[in-house]
Amino acid sequence: MNFSCLEFQVCGGGVQLAAWHIPSGSMINVMGAPTESAGNAPLFMDVKMAEGQILAGGFGSNKLQRFDYTHQHISTIELPKSIGVNCILTLKRPLEPTPLSLISGESRFIHVLTDFGFISSSIDLSCK
User: Fold this and answer.
1) pLDDT digits over 96-109, tens only?
2) N or C end: fewer C-beta atoms under 10 angstroms in the chain?
């Protein structure tokens, strides 16, 4: 599938993520992610599409879900010291092959991912 971020969008509106084809206005797939416990899925608040990956996180979960562009779940990344994800910012780095992602949520920490597979560091924003 030739997947372009200009033609497709991933969004929630509830506990289920779905991929939509923008020109036709059609939902093409519901994306499943593991739930924390039976019937207890997070309310997805932010989704980013970059470099062939989809990152999704939300309220009520300290886990970031990672998908590929075929909507297959790749992994779950646990965000220590957080109880939710409110914002995912992904930036291309000119001299690096993978993007840099900053994840913030309902805590005093910003988590830094230097690739999509793991947290490389956390920044504590508390005043001491």
Assistant:
1) 777 788 888 888 88
2) C
Half-sphere exposure (Cβ direction) of 106: Cα atoms closer than 13 Å: 11
Task: State the pLDDT confidence band at 33, using cuts at 50, 70 and 90.
Answer: low
* 121-124, strands of its sheet edge to edge: 85-91, 100-105, 109-113, 121-124
Whole-angstrom distance, CA of residue 66 vs CA of residue 52:
11
Pick the CATH number of 8-124 from 2.40.50.140, 3.30.1510.10, 2.130.10.10, 2.30.30.40: 2.130.10.10
Interatomic CA distance for residues 58 and 56, integer angstroms? 7
Model pTM score: 0.74
